[in-house]
């Protein structure tokens, strides 16, 4: 088919009519100036939070695997591509949450999350260590990133906590639970490596 015909993707997909293509692709075929699909603020914030944490993992030289489908309560599995802390190829799971209206209490972030998400991190019965990573972000998505020739700035910061010593919560008694995330637990490249290489008993509140 002539690529200037109705189906510009005819080389890659059968052209049975534009109505059979997903709606997002239909919008992509519209002329310049026509409205486009836009992420809702919650999805946009969540996507940025995950990208923030992934960037730290890549900068640390770790392997990064996205959990798909999203049914196990973790967003990424980080791994070290070699021996670290006496273990070959150590790995850990992280659940990422983003937050644009942070509430601080006595040097800790007091973050409220659903019981289901909490229970996916609480306790010891996991094959890999698990951590909650809380990314504090600007309220305005236009402030997420600042780029200049000297570097790329991502706002604001990520913090971590282990819920390994916490008891799971009965879902019939509560819908949400408040989690305290120490502000001292700033997630950095060095901290990621230490969380992977240090004994689990040492990764409760400090790295």
Poorly predicted ranges (pLDDT <50, ≥5 residues)?
1-30, 199-207
Helix content: 10-25%
Order of helices and strands: HHEEEEEEEHEEEEEH
Q: Tell me, what is the CATH class of the largest domain?
A: Alpha Beta
CATH topology of the largest domain: Trna Endonuclease, Chain: A, domain 1
Radius of gyration: 21 Å
Describe the structure.
With 207 residues, this protein is an alpha+beta fold. It folds into two domains: 1-37, no CATH class; 41-202, Trna Endonuclease, Chain: A, domain 1 (3-Layer(aba) Sandwich), CATH 3.40.1350.10. It is 19% helix and 28% strand. The chain contains four helices and twelve strands. The chain has helices at 23-28, 41-59, 115-119, 189-197; strands at 63-66, 76-79, 83-84, 87-88, 91-99, 104-105, 108-114, 130-136, 145-148, 151-154, 157-161, 176-182. The termini are far apart. Mean pLDDT is 83; it is low at 1-30 and 199-207.
Q: What secondary-structure arrangement, pairings included, does this model have?
A:
Elements: H1 23-28, H2 41-59, E1 63-66, E2 76-79, E3 83-84, E4 87-88, E5 91-99, E6 104-105, E7 108-114, H3 115-119, E8 130-136, E9 145-148, E10 151-154, E11 157-161, E12 176-182, H4 189-197
Parallel strand pairs: 5-8
Antiparallel strand pairs: 1-2, 2-5, 3-4, 6-7, 7-12, 8-11, 9-10
């Amino acid at each position: 088919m002539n690529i200037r015909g109705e189906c510009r993707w005819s080389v890659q997909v059968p052209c049975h009519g534009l109505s059979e293509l997903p709606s997002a692709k239909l919008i992509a075929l519209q002329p310049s100036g026509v409205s486009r699909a836009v992420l809702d603020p919650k999805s946009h914030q969540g996507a940025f939070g995950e990208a923030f944490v992934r960037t730290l993992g890549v900068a640390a030289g770790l392997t990064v695997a996205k959990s798909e489908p999203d049914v196990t309560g973790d967003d990424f599995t980080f791994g070290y591509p070699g021996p670290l802390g006496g273990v070959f190829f150590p790995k850990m799971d992280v659940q990422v949450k983003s937050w644009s209206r942070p509430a601080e209490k006595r040097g800790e972030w007091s973050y409220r999350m659903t019981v289901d998400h909490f229970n996916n991190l609480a306790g010891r019965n996991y094959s890999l260590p698990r951590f909650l990573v809380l990314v504090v972000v600007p309220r305005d998505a236009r402030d997420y990133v600042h780029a200049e020739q000297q570097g790329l700035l991502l706002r604001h910061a990520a913090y971590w906590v282990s819920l390994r010593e916490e008891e799971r919560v009965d879902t019939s008694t509560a819908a949400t639970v408040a989690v305290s995330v120490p502000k001292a637990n700033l997630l950095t490249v060095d901290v990621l490596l230490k969380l992977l290489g240090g004994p689990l008993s040492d990764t409760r509140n400090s790295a």
